């Protein structure tokens, strides 16, 4: 399981453009990044920049290769294809959201 001290909340400057299968581009903001020692990977969770605060959004998750500053917006994104890996990412997200609600 990823350790919580490895969570790095996104800031306003970390934006990533995703391109769908039809070539449509959408700008996403980094929610947070974290590292998993179990999988020896870094992960980034994104949400659409256009989403309003009261809107329910679909969060996108990828593993990524960070740049020299650990920035996700400059590295390569990779799909998460393993079910156990997805379960770990969802657990980290749920913990992050529960901690955010508690504040």
TrEMBL record:
Q: Which InterPro entries match?
A: UPF0473
| Highest rank taxon of the organism | Bacteria
- The secretion signal range is none
UniProt family annotation: Belongs to the UPF0473 family.
This protein's name: UPF0473 protein ACFQ5J_11125
